[in-house]
Design a protein that fits this description.
The chain is α/β, with parallel strands linked by helices. Strands 22-25-26-27-30-29-28 form a seven-stranded mixed β-barrel. Helix 3 crosses helix 7, helix 8 packs parallel to helix 10 and helix 11 packs antiparallel against helix 12. The longest helix has 22 residues. The chain is globular. Belongs to the aconitase/IPM isomerase family. It is an enzyme of class 4 (lyase). InterPro entries: Acnase/IPM_dHydase_lsu_aba_1/3, Acoase/IPM_deHydtase_lsu_aba, Aconitase/3IPM_dehydase_swvl, Aconitase/IPM_isomerase, Aconitase_4Fe-4S_BS, Aconitase_4Fe-4S_dom, Aconitase_dom2, Aconitase_mito-like.
């Protein structure tokens, strides 16, 4: 039986009326995304149509999900709100703090010892406030959510950018910062700009080496890392219905790599099969009864160009396997052209490690397709030439895969099974290398491949592909190998080929697990104590940020002018820094250390305008803070892309940065900055980025008349006595301006409950 079944049935009960009302006020048939959005309005039934891409809308999500790295700050903020219990079903998943080094059992035990303080904190907070707690080893948040909580037609927010994975089960699932999660858990509305819509019509059917992963790798190549910003990507067509539920989840998961708000598929038989297989026949039955509301109206499918802002069409029967990278997940190469690209770009041909798993590709089907390739290597007497690691997505997947002999198949060719956790995908990988500065290549079935993302090494060229392609490359140990056309020499000196992979969508004997790793909260948590040691270097209770002083911001120093790609990994690295996710002051020592300084082309080296000396970014900012001097960060396009981590917004706020001025923002990061009382500004003329000089002192003028749609002025005072006045834009609405004025959104919540 499903968790929160009454809540799910309640969603279906009110959907029909709300969708009918929305159809009337919008005045046309509705897409699936619109049906779910309009049926989750905070106001109830729609009283007006909301303009896509412009109108800010208040929503009422059905649930909240948090992973352990982001949950710490989200729950520290929630504790300040003064609420006795969460207002919507919520869960915490301990998947980010387990470092991959030796193997599953050893790594998990080390993590439990090393992170005991954090796990105990999260368990006690969950117990007190009515939050479901998934223990370390239970699995990766998005796979566990798909197996237990996602349901067609629902709306969920999660403190992780890959929350859209639940779109594989027909759910509007959106990655947010912890402040947003705190709001919803506190019983408040959640605000989102009404997204635009991209329709992706899938025809045909996958075959051979092509997989669901290749669909999103292809789409990423079409749309780029920011092409989906502000959009919901909705997949439909007979091709969509042919994909497995977990395959759909893979596609939705990696929609984060094109900046999409979320991605979604309509409810179909594949979803029903998955629900029944994961012991949720009751949800499948309820969804069947509401099926007409869990897909776009017929008119939309008949003439989709009229209803979507953009349209893409893909014939799955023509889709070739893809390999994306290096250094960005949208550099897409059809497999037939990849070897040539490797040679022409002088990327290291020798493959050192192949890694499969992550929240994107760690389902039972993924494991079986990869295992079918690994099994051939054993039968054809081929030894893997590269290191090979496997990460199951959940304890249920791991237990079932072990029962069915899948894990043993990997181990026969030298594969190492890692703990059910994110591991190397987020930099939690103690990789052993003879020379970390040496150019090298790895390939993964993960989602992101930014520089340093997986192993912290700038010289590592990381590529992304499906689990079966990764397995084939690991066996070959050579990036110029094409398993569709090339032979391998086995131990007997014979030339042999790998056959097409074969997968099993759902286990023939059903899923099984002895201990899924779930811990239910206390029925009454009022007496549960949440203790945080004041001397801890891992956890720190929060102090409120100061309110706006009521004046223009003048005399700000330029902290850094970041050049090129500046993701949340550049702003607040993961890896070894994950242990400080619950201690704002300590983790602030990684602020912007990965960003490239425009003026010297170096990372973590900026000019201190007070002394003229060069120093590390956090240390320089701490000097400004000690002197009571505010600062500003200037950035390039799509600033803050990548992970949802709100630490990338909280660290600058904590250290005294007052504004971020860029050419454009990634959606989640812009919202996170606003929530923390920061000014998130964009150049009205992107070429004005070039006017910012290293020794500039900067004023932000017009804040006393700060209002929606009204530009502000930034004055750049140059060291030679000249100045430039430039116009900057913002996307603040009236409520968000109040966040800025109050010092943060949380400050407003706290005042409302007298906390």
């Amino acid at each position: 039986m499903a968790f929160d079944l009454d809540m799910i049935k309640g969603v279906y009960t009110r959907m029909e009326e709300r969708i009918d009302t929305a159809r009337n006020v919008v005045g046309r048939p509705l897409t699936l995304a619109e049906k779910i959005l309009y049926s989750h309005l905070w106001e109830g039934s729609a009283s007006a149509a909301y303009e896509r891409g412009k109108a800010y809308v208040d929503f009422a999500p059905d649930r909240v999900a948090m992973q352990d790295a982001t949950a710490q700050m989200a729950l520290l903020q929630f504790m300040q709100a003064g609420r006795p219990q969460v207002a919507v079903p919520s869960t915490v998943h301990c998947d980010h703090l387990i470092q991959a080094e030796v193997g599953a059992a050893e790594d998990l035990q080390i993590a439990k010892t090393k992170n005991k303080e954090v796990y105990d904190f999260l368990a006690s907070v969950s117990n007190k406030y009515g939050i479901g707690f998934w223990k370390p080893g239970a699995g990766i948040i998005h796979q566990v959510v798909l197996e237990n909580y996602a349901f067609p037609g629902g709306m969920m927010i999660g403190t992780d950018s890959h929350t859209p994975n639940a779109g594989g089960l027909g759910m509007i699932a959106i990655g947010v910062g912890g402040a947003d999660a705190s709001d919803v858990m506190s019983g408040l509305a959640w605000e989102l700009k009404m997204p635009r819509l991209i329709g992706v019509k899938l025809t045909g059917k996958l075959s051979g080496w092509a997989s669901a992963k290749d669909v999103i790798l292809w789409v990423a190549g079409q749309l780029t890392v920011k092409g989906g910003t502000g959009y919901v990507v909705e997949y439909f067509g007979e091709g969509a219905e042919s994909l497995s539920c977990t395959g759909k989840g893979t596609i939705c998961n990696m929609g984060a790599e094109i900046g999409a708000t979320t991605s979604i598929f309509a409810y179909d038989d594949k979803m029903a099969d998955y629900l029944r297989s994961t012991d949720r026949a009751d949800v499948a039955e309820a969804a069947e009864a509401a099926k007409a509301n869990l897909r776009s109206d017929d008119e939309v499918y008949e003439n989709p160009a009229l209803y979507y802002d953009q349209m893409i069409e893909l014939d799955l029967s023509t889709l070739e396997p893809h390999v994306n990278g290096p250094f960005t997940p949208d550099l897409a190469w059809p497999l037939s052209k990849f070897a040539q690209a490797v040679k022409e770009n002088n990327w290291p041909e020798r493959l050192e490690v192949g890694l499969i798993g992550s929240c994107t590709n760690s389902s039972y089907e993924d494991m079986t397709r990869a295992a079918s390739v690994a099994g051939q290597a054993s039968l054809k007497n081929i030894k893997a030439k590269a290191e090979f690691t496997i990460t199951p997505g959940s304890e249920m997947v791991r237990f079932t895969a072990e029962r069915d002999g899948i894990l043993d198949t990997f181990e026969k060719i030298g594969g190492v099974v890692l703990a059910n956790a994110c591991g190397p995908c987020i930099g939690q990988w103690a990789r052993h290398m003879d020379d970390p500065t040496r150019k090298n290549s790895i390939i993964t079935s993960f989602n992101r491949n930014f520089a340093k993302r997986n192993d912290g090494n700038l010289s590592t060229h990381a590529f992304v592909a499906s689990p079966e392609i990764v397995t084939a490359f690991a066996i070959a140990g050579d990036l110029t190998f094409n398993p569709m056309t090339d032979t391998l020499k086995n131990e007997d000196g014979q030339d042999v080929m790998l056959d097409e992979p074969q997968g099993i969508e759902l286990p023939l004997k059903g899923f099984d697990v002895e201990d899924a790793g779930y811990q239910a909260p206390a029925a009454d948590g009022s007496q549960v104590q949440v203790l945080v040691d004041p001397e801890s270097d891992r956890l720190q209770l929060l102090d409120p940020f100061k309110e706006w002083e009521g004046t223009d911001l003048k005399g700000l120093k330029l902290l850094i002018k970041a050049k090129g790609k500046c993701t949340t990994d550049h702003i607040s690295m993961a890896g070894p820094w994950l242990k400080y996710r619950g201690h704002l002051d300590n983790i602030s020592n990684n602020m912007l250390i990965g960003a490239v300084n425009y003026f010297n082309e170096k990372s973590n080296l900026v000019k201190n305008q007070l002394s003229g000396a060069y120093g590390e970014v956090p240390a320089t900012q701490r000097i400004y803070k000690a002197e009571g001097i505010g600062s500003i960060v200037v950035g390039d396009e799509n600033y803050g892309e990548g992970s949802s981590r709100e630490h990338a917004a909280m660290e600058p706020r904590h250290l005294g940065v007052r504004a971020i001025l860029v050419k454009s923002f990634a959606r989640i990061h812009e919202t996170n900055l606003k929530k923390q009382g920061m000014l998130a500004l964009t150049f009205a003329d992107p070429s004005d980025y070039e006017k910012v000089q290293e020794d500039d002192t900067i004023d932000i003028v017009g804040l006393n008349s700060f209002e929606p749609g009204r530009s502000l002025t930034v004055v750049l005072h140059h060291s030679d006595g000249t100045k430039d006045e430039i116009t900057v834009n913002h996307t603040y609405n009236e409520q968000q301006i109040k966040w800025f004025q109050a010092g943060s959104a949380l400050n407003i919540i706290r005042k409302s409950v007298g906390a």
